[in-house]
Fold:
Amino acid sequence: MYKNEDLEEKKVLGSGGYAFVNLTEDEELKFNLGVPHLFLGNIGRLDKTRFTRYYCNKCGKEYPGFPIITYENPNEEITKDVILLEKGEYKCKICKNIIAQYRKFNK
Structure:
């Protein structure tokens, strides 16, 4: 998917902090909401190897590497024809503060 493409480090925001991740230009365009910021919640689950560092608002510190990434696949019907396929969180490794949450739907 991204092995043959150029990756560029981008700052992506969450409600409890932010992270610096390596994204392709296509990914950056796909996840852009039309504002000058990218959001982890919009990107969804990224492989931990894509993270270079993250910042936790609760600790007030930046850490190297990746946050804790947890997710589940509930396959829960929200409304007719809309199914919650995956929900997950990015958490600080030190204090367990939620950096960002994401949801992935079938539509």
User: Anything to note?
Assistant: The radius of gyration is 14 Å. The first strand starts at residue 8 and ends at 14. Strands lie at 8-14, 17-23, 38-39, 51-56, 61-64, 68-72, 76-79, 82-91, 98-105.
